Amino acid sequence: MANQLLTIQMITNEALAVLENELTFTKFVNRQYDDSFAKKGAKIGDTLNIRKPPRYVGRTGQAISIEDSVETSVPLQLNTQAGVDIQFSSSDMALRIDQFSERFIKPAMANVANRIDRDGLVMATNAVYNSVGTPGTPLASGDLLVDAGSYMDNYCSPRGSLRSAVFSPLSSGNIIKGLKSIFNDGQRIGDQYNTGNLGPLYGFKTSMDQNVMNRTVGPLGGTPLVNGAGQTGASLITDGWTAAAANRLKQGDVFTIAGVFSVNPQSRQTNNVLQQFVVTADTNSDAGGNATIAISPAITPTGQYQNVTNSPADNASITVMGAANTVTTQNLAYHRDAFTLACADLPLPDGVDMAARKSDPQTGLSVRMVRQYNITTDQWPCRLDVLYGWAPLYPEWACRIQA
Q1: Is residue 372 within 8 Å of residue 137, measured between CB atoms?
Q2: Whether the Cβ atoms of residue 165 and residue 205 lie closer than 8 Å to each other
Q3: Which terminus of the chain, N or C, has fewer Cβ atoms within 10 Å?
């Protein structure tokens, strides 16, 4: 049978298929905003501000009590262009598509897919404040996934088929070993034994993802306290750190404040669980042990967007999750709408040998391939590109499972 010559469109189609197959965390997040970018005649630039619905306090009784309708938004920016640049000879071009895919396309697109997946998990880890588990302590069972689901329930995360969880290879293996002594149907145990995959568990679609990140708890030091009563907003003034100018907290660290409890976002009744806060930027103390911490969520003790029972008291103690400098695995449970990924069509350049683009309307992924010929070396330089961006929509609908 004669060799099948490869066209640029065939290569692009195969590249998109490989990219879809290589994604794990990314498969189960929101993708509805892709169509908002790069429409002909309706360009919006590289940023889309996603509107979130207003919340209302409501009233009791007959007297009218009009509330302001306050919409909030989350910026989704396409700010990452990732790709792989390769070249191949004229003889390579005569390969069949399956051979070409195995030799060139699959390794290239696996690199791009892992970058997208990894960026998403870094974004998620830095945005999510709900957290269970003990940093540095390996998982021994799937029990913490139940706890993670409870945290998500407290924030009105919808239940059902849109909840997913990703675990590192080690955490996934430990959970499978921990489940073998628990009653389960024979088919389920057989599937785990034969495939090494968790499968559905405690209301979540579970997957193993090698891109689940490890992070290190900040250096800490001292006995940190709230410095000043009645604080609100996205920063917290503290003191009591070791009296020296040094780094204390890392972006992604999680802490609680004594006496500050989370509330249900609709009823605004206490969940009887201390509100967790995530540090959104590395934090240094001054020579006197004072530090102002950038945090999420913003402390909001009243109104439509109330999220805590009260503002912290002066000298309320601060408890950071994990010991100083502990390396911890950031497994993640999440609802589909906790995060979103957008991908836009890159323009096709003129004056090249070939250029093609393939988009998948179901996943929102778009891959562009451009090829040129080098007459001096008889080589075909080629580039594969993807333009994308990540954003947290409802980070409260996710929970880290630290190990």
Answers
A1: no
A2: yes
A3: N
Task: Write out the DSSP string of 277-322.
Answer: EEE-S-EEE-TTS-EEEEEEEEE--SSTT--BSSPPPTT-BEEESS
Half-sphere exposure of 152 (CA within 13 A, CB side): 31
Q: Is the dihedral of CA 88, 91, 95, 97 positive or negative?
A: positive
What is the rounded CA–CA span in Å between residue 142 and residue 366? 36
Measured in degrees and rounded to the nearest 5, phi and psi for residue 251 equal: -55, 130
193 confidence band (pLDDT: 50, 70, 90): very low
The whole-angstrom separation of Cα 98 and Cα 357 is 19
Angstrom CA distances, 93 to 2, 44, 111, 381, stand at: 13, 39, 22, 12
Separation between Cα atoms, residue 230 and residue 259, nearest integer Å: 13
pLDDT at res. 241: 98
Query: Mean pLDDT throughout 354-370?
Result: 80
Q: Which two tokens stand for residue 95?
A: 């390969």
Cα separation of 172 and 165, whole Å?
10
pTM over 0.70: yes
- 274 DSSP β-pair partners: 261
- Whether omega before 107 lies within 30 degrees of 0, making that bond cis, reads no
| Positive or negative: CA dihedral 360, 364, 369, 370 | positive
Half-sphere exposure of 301 (CA within 13 A, CB side): 12
Cis status of the peptide bond prior to 297, with omega within 30 of 0: yes
CA atoms of 111 and 393, how far apart (whole Å): 26
Cα separation, 158 vs 81, whole angstroms = 33
Q: What is the pLDDT of residues 119-159, one digit of tens each?
A: 999 999 999 999 999 999 999 888 899 999 999 999 999 99
Residues 6+ apart with CB under 8 A from 300: 232, 306, 307, 308
Q: How far apart are CA 333 and CA 382, in angstroms?
A: 38
Residue 213 confidence class, pLDDT cut points 50, 70, 90: very high
Asked if residue 356 lies in contact with residue 8, where contact means CB atoms within 8 angstroms, the answer is yes
